[in-house]
Amino acid sequence: MPRVEILGLPVDLVSLEQAVERIGEMLESPGTHQVITLNPEYVVRAQGDPQLVQAARESELVTADGVGIVWAVRQLTKQQLPERVTGADLVPALLERFGPRLRVFFLGARPGVAQKAAENTMARWGIQVVGVQDGYFKDEAPVIEAIAQARPDLLLVGMGERQDLFIHRNKARLGARVAIGIGGMLDVLSGEVRRVHPLFQRLGLEWLVRIAGDRKRWGRFPRLIQFVRLVRAAKRAHG
Fold this sequence. Notes:
Elements: E1 3-6, E2 9-12, H1 16-27, E3 33-38, H2 40-46, H3 50-57, E4 61-64, H4 67-77, H5 87-98, E5 103-108, H6 113-125, E6 128-133, H7 140-150, E7 154-158, H8 163-169, H9 171-174, E8 178-181, H10 185-190, H11 198-202, H12 206-212, H13 221-237
Parallel strand pairs: 3-4, 3-8, 5-6, 5-7, 7-8
Antiparallel strand pairs: 1-2
Helix pairs in contact: 1-5, 2-13, 3-8, 4-13
């Protein structure tokens, strides 16, 4: 599986179908495998956080979550990604492909959201729910213990900026086959939030629509601008 590097972080050159196939192999392999859906904000944060860099480098799969990463790969490596592979597309594709055979643990979001996401997911795809926990906890130990005892095939973690480091830090103790940081996808699965019109999804502008419609997300713009600046600076530096 070809892997390139942008601004010190890896990106796997995979399509959605290839990502699903790769995760299918992970589900059959021992140990816990981490999947990161890389977005521009992660890249910007990682410039000042070695732990984020290490988490990405040690992940078994890093997909391009959004057009920004696709653009950066083209600018900095001359490689062409088959397509972007967002968490919003990858999670439903996994649930659709593996369905009733999947034992899933839902972790994150506000109280009640993960439970509703689990119920909706079970009703739609027939998965087995082996655990639910909201993201509002202070002590990690009981949460990690609950996950380890459940031994899920798939651990879905929706804890925003905390999620990927939580998985990486506790990887050896989670007991899950595959752990994915899925951002706000628990809200979507629960029905609390709807995905934007398919046209904006195809154009890769779902993130922009969500930011424009939610003032709480407006703070993301400076990081997106910084990402563009970093890519352009790196391109100039390497000719």
